Each structure stands twice: as C-alpha cells, then as structure tokens.
What we know:
alpha/beta, Purple Acid Phosphatase, chain A, domain 2, 6-stranded mixed sheet, 5-stranded mixed sheet, 6 helices
Amino acid sequence: MATFLHITDLHIVAEAPQATAKLDRLIALAQSADPAPDFIIASGDLTDHGDKASYSILAERMAELRIPVFYALGNHDKRSGFRAAFSGYEGDLDTPLDHDAVCAGYHIVVLDSSLPGKTSGGFEDGQLDALHAALARHTDLPKIMVLHHPPATQDETQRNWAVLNATDSARLGQALAGHDVLALLCGHIHTNRVMIWNGLPVISNVGLDSVIDPAHDLGPDGGLHITEGSGFGIGRITSREIGMAFADLAPGPTIKILPEGALRHLK
C-alpha cells in the first residue's frame, strides 16, 4: 500500500503571508505523519500570478519535506515562472509541463491542461501524442493521472470555464481507454468532489486557498459563492484500489478523542 497527499489550488503570492501560512500548516502535518507520505500530488494553480518569486517560495518550502512532489500547472500558473524556480523539467520555458515517473510502485502521469490566457482547460498540439507515449511506458504498473482541469461531463449545464474543453475531454477519454488508470486527480473547482467519468474516478478537493460552496448551486441566483476554507486529500492506494479522505486544514474545536486502544474493542 502507498499513501499520498493531494494538494491543489495553493495560489501562493510572494507578498501575501496568509497563503504561505496555509502551506506551512500542510507541510507541518506532512512532516509529523507516521508513516510519511510516499509522495505528494499538487494539481495546479500553484501560484496566483505565475511569478518566479512565488514559485521560489513554494520550491523552498516543499524541499523541506524530502518527499517526491508531482506538480501540474493550472490557469493561474505560468510555465516560464515555474521553470525559472524549479529545475529538472524538460522543454523550453513556455512549453507544456507534461511529465511522468514511477513512484512507490505506481506510474504517475502529469498532463498540463493550462491554456495561456484562458480559464478553461485544453491541450496544445503534440500533447496527446506525448500522453500516448507516456501511457505506453510501464504497462505493468497501475497509473494515476494528474491534471488541473476536470474533464467535461455530458451535462449540458456544465460551466465551460470550470472544465477541460469538450473536444479535449473526449480525446483524453479515448487516450486513456484500455489502460490501467486508477484515478484522475484534479483541482480548479475548489470543491471536494468525486465523479465517475468514462468509468474512472475523478477526484478534486477544495484546495488550500478558498472554497466554492456547492450548496449555492441549489439556489436561484447562480454565480459562485466563495468562502474561506482550506483543505487537502489523503490518499491510500493498493494495486487495485484507491481511496481519498478529504481533510480540513483548519478544523473546528475537538469535541471528543477516542484513543486507539478503545477503538480496538469496538464491534
């Protein structure tokens, strides 16, 4: 079994200490975890403005963990800013940040769904070819897909800005068909959500920056209701199973603690 943390939508701003404070709380939790997470997935909107200074803060803080981190880029990110602060990523400064690696017995494939100047997601020329090549590697290992924008569903009321565009969602589904993909991990929507798309679980969480309240969708006014809040996902995977718990980074007051010894006697 492997454990990992799924963080997203950090929106780090170099001159805004409150954003960094949330990241520091997350790092402290990861450092105290026993056992330590095998890896961390950060699914985009790493910074708010895409500037080198903000990415440098992120790189410095995350280096303290000494845990592998797999970064995807979102609509708030800028490829040149990221590459200026993080080394080891192939391609020119402004090329999509697509990469894959094996970690803890799983093949993690990261796809850059950011389109410069757009809020919605999509792919540039050549990215799907690169994805096919990545999927053909390590065919003996289960795969975890990472991208910022969740794929579009067939729901006609889906907000276009909130998803990967319909054309590229269909192309992604075709590319993944027949491969051993455990789940897609995404961000962008600032909501804890699991949906089944083309038979695959798509998992998102509220992220570190703020929460979009899905209950507001039940009302007549439309729009977005954005609240304070911060969270992340705690993932546990086996060769054929994946589970995700949604954790609050700033939980409310404790009302009761049941020690481990007492839990062993529950039937």
